[in-house]
Automatic annotation (TrEMBL):
Top class in the EC scheme: transferase
Catalytic activity: ATP + protein L-histidine = ADP + protein N-phospho-L-histidine
Keyword Membrane: yes
Source organism superkingdom: Bacteria
Spans through the membrane: 49-66, 72-91, 98-118
A family per Pfam: HATPase_c
Organism (species): Sphingomonas morindae
Protein name according to UniProt: histidine kinase
Entry's EC annotation: 2.7.13.3
Keywords (A to Z) from UniProt: ATP-binding, Kinase, Membrane, Nucleotide-binding, Phosphoprotein, Transferase, Transmembrane, Transmembrane helix, Two-component regulatory system
UniProt lineage: Bacteria, Pseudomonadati, Pseudomonadota, Alphaproteobacteria, Sphingomonadales
Domain called Histidine kinase: residue spans: 149-365
InterPro entries attached to this UniProt entry: HATPase_C_sf (IPR036890), HATPase_dom (IPR003594), His_kinase_dom (IPR005467), HisK_dim/P_dom (IPR003661), HisK_dim/P_sf (IPR036097), Sig_transdc_His_kin-like_C (IPR004358)
């Protein structure tokens, strides 16, 4: 690609991204759409009946779909249909027969486009719900696996404790009591209890230090994949996204799926935190950069209600949740994964509102290509 072409594509991309971002705000969206509708109405009324200018109303519908609630889209489509009919009545020039054909084409195009676009948005919503569900299932599965392995390992010493306890009781109840034998049985209870506790510590250690696959990971790609996963939901909830990634981020040695899980969970939590916000901008900011030691620091910030001071010490505790129906293990799993990668996670309370989670991951020392 020539430099001129590359520069032009870059500027088109930047303009597209700017328009996309600007369009998230109702203050930009509403006047732009009203202007567009007025322009279509005027040109449809002024041009001959042979020209089906009204089909351009579908542009207005497509701009609205996914950005405003479905009932408003239906209302907008009804206004477009009405304007098309008014233009038809007001237009004096051109063949009436051709005008009727064009009118029916325009009306049916607007109806069909609205119907299909709304169906598409509903399907996207369902897909997002399924993906969010998948993340929740992954949380529960990780927990289930951990619970199953603890249960499996600990079952045997527990059975031995019960049996030795029973033996000790029998010796103590015997006539005369077999105190020496009872003491031996109680010693076995203590030894088995210690064994169970060692096993639990070992399983926890194993869970902490078991990154499934180690590979060279480009963190910007992991972030982009996680963002793509949540894009539809961000748009649906009117959340603007600020993505700031430093050039030439160092490569991380780790498990791509697990790191994706970290990002997806943090984004999901941010989206859920902002669901109750209606009086200010809902905004998600993700940044990735190297710190002074060369490690990568990723931050995920939101404009949700933030975290109460008294909640801070519990945030990463297993099963600690403030959400109805929450599992309280998302952040626990995230911390386990991050620590297994030799990293750290912490959170800042933002002023006047919002939360910012930071994940630090050690750089592998391998240069990014
Ligand atoms: P869950 O999402 O099931 O509650 P998590 O472990 O992911 O489990 O989160 C634990 C708690 O941490 C949440 O219930 C919530 O109170 C708090 N939390 C997590 N992320 C955020 C956030 N971005 N803003 C405010 N609170 C948060």
């Amino acid at each position: 690609m020539s430099d001129a072409l590359r520069a032009r594509s870059a500027s088109i991309w930047v303009a597209g991204a700017w328009l996309h971002r600007a369009f998230q705000s109702p203050a930009v969206r509403v006047p732009v759409m009203a202007l567009l509708m007025a322009a279509i109405f005027i040109s449809d009324t002024l041009t001959d009946l042979e020209i089906a200018t009204a089909v351009f109303y579908i542009a207005v519908i497509l701009l609205a779909v996914g950005r405003v609630p479905s009932r408003y889209v239906v209302g907008l489509a009804a206004i477009c249909l009405l304007l098309t009919l008014v233009s038809f009545v007001l237009t004096k020039s051109g063949s009436r027969e051709a005008g009727v054909v064009n009118l029916s084409i325009s009306l049916s195009t607007i109806c069909i486009t609205t119907y299909l676009a709304l169906k598409m948005v509903a399907a996207e919503g369902a897909a997002h719900e399924a993906r969010a569900q998948l993340i929740r299932v992954a949380r529960v599965t990780s927990l289930g696996e951990l619970a199953a392995s603890i249960a499996h390992e600990v079952n045997q010493p527990l059975a031995a404790i019960a049996s030795s306890g029973d033996t000790a009781r029998r010796w103590l109840c015997a006539e005369p009591p077999g105190v020496g034998r009872a003491r031996d049985a109680i010693d076995r209870v203590i030894a088995d209890a210690n064994r169970a506790s060692t096993i639990i510590a070992r399983v926890r250690e194993h869970a902490r230090s078991a990154p499934a696959q180690r590979g060279e990971i480009r963190i910007d790609t992991v972030i982009e994949e996680a963002v793509a996963w949540s894009q539809a939901e961000l748009e649906r909830q009117g959340i603007t996204l600020d993505l700031a990634m430093a050039d030439q981020l160092p490569v991380v040695l780790g498990d791509r799926i697990q790191l994706q899980q970290v990002l997806c969970n943090l984004i999901l939590n941010a989206i859920e935190a902002m669901a109750t916000v209606s009086s200010r901008r809902r905004s998600l900011a993700i940044a990735a950069m190297s710190d002074v030691s060369g490690d990568i620091v990723i931050s995920v910030s939101d404009t949700g209600p933030g975290i109460r001071e008294e909640h801070m010490p519990h945030l990463f505790d297993a099963f600690w949740t403030t959400k109805e129906g929450g599992t309280g293990i998302g952040l626990t799993i995230i911390r386990t994964i991050v620590e297994a990668h030799g990293g750290a996670i912490w959170v800042d309370r933002m002023k006047p509102y919002g939360a910012r989670f930071h994940v630090r991951l050690p750089a592998s020392g391998i240069d990014a290509e």
